[in-house]
Amino acid sequence: MMRFSGVCSAIVLVVFSTLAQAEQAGWALFDKVQSAVKQYNFDTSFVVLKGTNVDTYRWLHGRADGQEIEHLIPLDTSGVDILRRDALVYYLLTDRPAFVTRSHSIPELPALFFEPKENIQRLYNAVAGSSSVMSGRSAQLLRLTAKDASRYNYWLWLDDETGFPLRIDILSEQQNALERWLVTHMQISAEMPENLRSLMEAELPAPGDSVPRSAVASSHQLTWLPQGYTQVEEPANIPQLESSLLSYWLLSDGLHQVSVFVQQAQRLPTQAYRDGATTIYVQNANQLEVTVIGPVSIETARQLAAGVH
Amino acid sequence: MSSEHQDWLSAASDNKPLTKAQLDSLLTDTELQSTLERYHLIGATIRRETSGPLPVDFTAAIMAEIDAEPAYQLKTDRGLLQRVKASVAAAANGRWLQPVAQGAIAAGVALMAVFGVQQYQQQPEDMLSPQPLLQTQPIAGFATPVSLSQTTVSDRFAEQEQQAMLEQQKRLQALLNAHRQQVRVMEQAQQANHKAEANTGPEQNEQQ
């Protein structure tokens, strides 16, 4: 009997230590990805696939003399050029003056690359998967599985050699791919790309004053939050919606953001929409229209909307 | 000695049986053989037979005759294919081919099944392609409704309904833009907070 229990505990130990090792290997890969996108000089193109919709971007990054520069250019949409120099992000518009924010990353890029690892470790388990060939390169799969089942999962493929991300799939809880981020071209160089060098020198507008915070006391209450989410205190004003907006909350789990808008009821029915991994849920009840926007499942959005009183 | 020989040889020519020793000596001694042949000839003459007995060296004569025979080259008058066809046709009716043919068909089906399954198993990869359940073709750069509930649209109000729908989409687009703006600004707010706390170098760089 003693021997049997000894064997059992040995097996349990072995299983646990292998699991722990797999987890460690996963996070080591994750570190590799985060450092690759921050440290290398690169010139890449990527596409974002949302159902039948495809957006193409060019993404350049350079680091020299302690300074960092990053340029994101939409190739097939009439979007804005986004440029980041160290901690300032410039939205360069053609017909209006540039919009400047302070951030150490471009929010339009996958937040997974830039969020501190501790934030992501709170929400996800990382497990290294199998290797495969992608775009002629050997790619290693890294699965980020949500600890809370309602959160979307990430499958990340990274280049074996450099650790550069090659593809990210955002999967629903049913393991359906909702959105895919895919690198189509990648060039890592020792020197900073030439056009970034000139942008490094370019004269750019100074950041404006800090964004006005909404002082409006909301007349409603949000009684339910999804697991891991907290309310962002004092979200910025939304001038263009000032007239119609009754209440507004911005929720964040460190990696994803969800907006909850409350407006006067329209005569339209309760509906759900999806733009890639972003769910847009509109609920009409009690003379109120509650709109939930964010990368959450429709069920979570429904619960959030139901939590507004 | 010789008369003794002649006695059993003469008897042999009259179809009397030979002992084993006598047969052995006859086979080895050519003189005895020619004597026997002579006795046979005498006997044949006495019995007035027209043909003589078989000569001792008849094999040599036959060999010579075969050599003298002209050589004929045998040619196939049918092509290889015809021969194969004919042999297959013959074999198909044979008892052994039918089970073999059945086996071959079974093997073919099994092979198809194996390859078919492999093809089928490759499909989960395709299922990863972004075809979410609720994804629909966006109209005017925005997603269209996916869960129409509660209302049924009568034709009479279709146009108004469509108008309202467009308005709704416009409103939702505005909300989506507001959400994106909030995400941008929130990062800024967080960074600003971090910087206020840590007062790190990059900000000072920017301020120069």
TrEMBL record, chain A:
One Pfam family cited in the UniProt record for this chain: MucB_RseB
Transmembrane stretches, start-end: none
Domain of life: Bacteria
Cleavable signal peptide: 1-22
InterPro entries in alphabetical order: MucB/RseB_C (IPR033436), MucB/RseB_C_sf (IPR038484), MucB/RseB_N (IPR033434), MucB_RseB (IPR005588)
UniProt cross-references to Gene3D superfamilies, sorted A to Z: Lipoprotein localisation LolA/LolB/LppX, MucB/RseB, C-terminal domain
Segments forming domain MucB/RseB C-terminal: 217-308
Cell compartments where the protein resides: Periplasm
Sequence ranges assigned to domain MucB/RseB N-terminal in this UniProt record: 28-194
Keywords: Periplasm, Signal
The family this protein is said to belong to: Belongs to the RseB family.
Name assigned to this protein: Sigma-E factor regulatory protein RseB
Organism: Rheinheimera aquimaris
Automatic annotation (TrEMBL), chain B:
Presence of the UniProt keyword Cell inner membrane in the record: yes
Coiled coil: none
Protein's cellular compartments: Cell inner membrane; Cell membrane
Keywords annotated in UniProt: Cell inner membrane, Cell membrane, Membrane, Transmembrane, Transmembrane helix
Keyword Transmembrane helix: yes
Ranges of residues in domain Anti sigma-E protein RseA C-terminal: 130-185
Stretches for region Disordered: 186-208
Pfam families per record: RseA_C (PF03873), RseA_N (PF03872)
Membrane topology annotation: Single-pass membrane protein
Domain Anti sigma-E protein RseA N-terminal, residue spans: 6-77
Gene3D superfamilies in alphabetical order: Anti sigma-E protein RseA, N-terminal domain
InterPro entries named among the record's database cross-references: Anti-sigma-E_RseA-like (IPR052383), Anti-sigma_E_RseA_C (IPR005573), Anti-sigma_E_RseA_N (IPR005572), Anti-sigma_E_RseA_N_sf (IPR036147), RseA (IPR026279)
CDD domains recorded: RseA_N (cd16328)
Principal place of residence: membrane
Subunit and partners: Interacts 1:1 with ECF RNA polymerase sigma-E (RpoE); this inhibits the interaction of sigma-E with the RNA polymerase catalytic core and leads to a decreased expression of sigma-E-regulated genes. Interacts with RseB.
Family assignment from sequence similarity: Belongs to the RseA family.
Function: An anti-sigma factor for extracytoplasmic function (ECF) sigma factor sigma-E (RpoE). ECF sigma factors are held in an inactive form by an anti-sigma factor until released by regulated intramembrane proteolysis (RIP). RIP occurs when an extracytoplasmic signal triggers a concerted proteolytic cascade to transmit information and elicit cellular responses.
Protein name as it appears in the record: Anti-sigma-E factor RseA
Species of the source: Rheinheimera aquimaris
